Records
---
Amino acid sequence: MAISADSPEESRELIRKAGLTYPLLSDGKAEAIRRYDLLAPKAGIDGRDIAGTAEFLVDASGTVRWRNLSEAGPAEFMEAAKAVQ
Amino acid sequence: MTKRLWNWRLWVGFGVSFLALLIYFLLLQKTRSIFWGSLVLFVLSAALLVSGLKRAYAQPQSYRGKIAGPVLTVLGALFLGFFGWGVSLAAKYFPAARNAPKVGQKAPEFITVDSHGNSVALAQLLSTSMPNSSGGARTPKGVLLVFYRGYW
């Protein structure tokens, strides 16, 4: 699941353009983004509040099993993903 | 008159300030901690430049650098300015995320909308079975949440 402050329309456009196969979630008021402390205030186009990039791997119980605040690469993610399986 | 010595502190100080700026921009993508490495180098560079300048002006008969000194110091300060600019940009675009959920903590619940306008909650993502590649369906073992900048 990929989350941004984009509107559903912008997400649809991105899915179409990039041929994405996974869902994009819109967090227009940046509520989820704020809850994960990832808000980049006024860093977007027209001074919009947007998300800083980060990834969280959440297991079925809702616990964070791995996270990346832009310091880790895909290899580390794959390792964590294997542990969840 | 004795031969005036090469004022190496000025040149080394200048070199160190360049290095500090270079590693900051090259390594920022890899680790944010590089800020501290660059900061230490800038402090070192400033100390070298200041002591080099002092030598050049206090003992002009022994040390060179009355012209090179100010030039190198201004360039060093310019690099420091670029560094400060880079740091402020990084702070804007890469939030520190100090209170982001840590490994082992509960992922905060949220409700968003998908690209068709349907509301989607985290709890729902974790419990709803999804069609898999072999045509069946199964409850997910987990969810990868990718926060991205979006259109900007």
---
Amino acid sequence: MIHAALRRWETMLAAVLVVEFVSFSLLSPYFLDVDTLSDATFNFTERALVALPLALLIIAGEIDISVAGIIALASVAMGFAADAGAGTATLLGVGLGTGLLAGCVNGALVTFARVPSIVATIGTMTLFRGIAYAALGDRVLKSYPASFSTFGQGYFVGPVSIELALFVVFALLFAAFLHGTRYGRAIYAIGANPVATRFAGIRVDRYRFALFAVTGLAAGLAAVLLTSRLGSTRPSIAQGWELEIISIVILGGISVWGGKGSILGVVLASLVFGLVTFGLGLMNIPGIVMSIFTGALLILVVAVPALLGRR
Amino acid sequence: MNRWRLATDTQRRDLSLALLTLLLVAAVTFEFPGFAAPRNLASVFDDTAILIMLALGQMLVILVRGVDLSVAANLALCGMLAALFNRAFPGAGVWPVLLLSLGAGALLGAFNGVLVWKLRLPPIVVTLGTMSVYRGVIYLLSRGAWVNENEMSPAFVAFTRAQFLGLSTLSWLAIACTVAAVLLMRGSRVARNFYAAGGNPEAAAYSGIDVGRMQFIAYVICGACAGLCGYLWVARFAVAYTDIALGFELQVIAACLIGGVAITGGVGSALGVLLGCLFLGVIRSSLPLVGISAFWQMFINGVVILVAVLLGARQRRHARSILEAKA
């Protein structure tokens, strides 16, 4: 029993998390402070919100590398809406709507046009980011109303930010959906064997389309939060986030081969990732060097199970 | 009459792409008569040369069902290595630099290849990771600083720009690579093994082809191309820094896909890839003429990739009618 629990990926992540906590609090006397920890959560909440639906998508055997492109597109759409005088509620609608629409484009490419999801989303990643650059060039959009900053800068209760509260709520919802409903079972089945699942009478393509749409919607939400937190939009916003978001999902024990993984793992991986980047930031390590760490982490996490002969 | 009929889909496809490119040249020339002048066309080709060499390498990887997102980062890293080597040994001449960038690129490609071959990791995950690692290493090597033209030896910069019969060394290298690729991909046994390994890996394995090894070789060649292009890029633009060629991998993939390389593997020709590159090259060099900012390039790449994969998907539709075939 104990042996099995020790060998579980989630247990290992929890152990890593404890090690991180202990070593950071030994390294810095300011670390174990409610405000510091509250600040640290901003490092992962936006990415983790996208990681949740992306985890489902990867469990179902697909992938979406256009998520950062969607964030940029949604942010640019909100920027132009704000320029045109839109209020906060409208901006929220524009951000979420753009994300949903972009997700539906991915879903349509994969289900109706039968394009493999890797190349479909390489294409849309280029297209979405390309639209952002074409529309904005080297300009910056920042005429956001003051109340718009609530989403990314506001607090729910005490030190719990709105972003963190949203993440907790969505993590619980996704966990209940994936592990507690027959729809969740169907997602595992699709990832394990799409053809057999289709024979079992499950409308595989509907699931795929819905998962791409929800991933787009989540990217739209992340765009709202990120734009609100930064207060401005450049076409390079969220550059490289696809790597970080996919890394969180894979680090969470979601198999790149589909069919395996849990939401608990993704949540733990988000915390591990957020704390590590926060710690590296405290040590004044520049973002580009952190990207070595993220890239190496991604490869390591997929390579280790392969080396140990477990899939 | 019969001898004028085109034998295969590939030839029809290549011909329509060539006609489309010529049409584009004609349209731009109609507005700007200077565009089709030999001197200008030579400079358009010079601008496209690096894309051609990178796309030929990428073609091999896509043929064996892989993809290499790390080519641009590989190029930038090898370019920085070449620039730093040249700064340290300005008197060494061009040959050591060429060997260094070629070798370093092949090594970086081999790293991708080993992970895909020996550990059977998904190419997209591997190269997404190495893309970011390679890019970060440039920053560590250069400490974020630029290497400018005044820190490069004259021979280092002059190599790519030297003219021969009206074309630059860079252009001649691209031509040589294309000719070599066309000849090798047509006739050699290795080439047939590439097509077999990508077209039907199971069948290829049964006939004694080591599919993983073919993937490894493809990544090494692709990496070597990227490494060589790293030096050429840095010498041509006479500057090396962390972010050179950022996002260029997408243009390389776009060129391959519009050139008729199937993302599902096993289909593609060097001639098609050349045409794809020329098509994108003509678009890129006519953008400033028709008053469209360079910021549109990425959008165009995206449209090109999507159109190419949609066309490709339509061709296979009949094979996946009720239940999808195993990809």
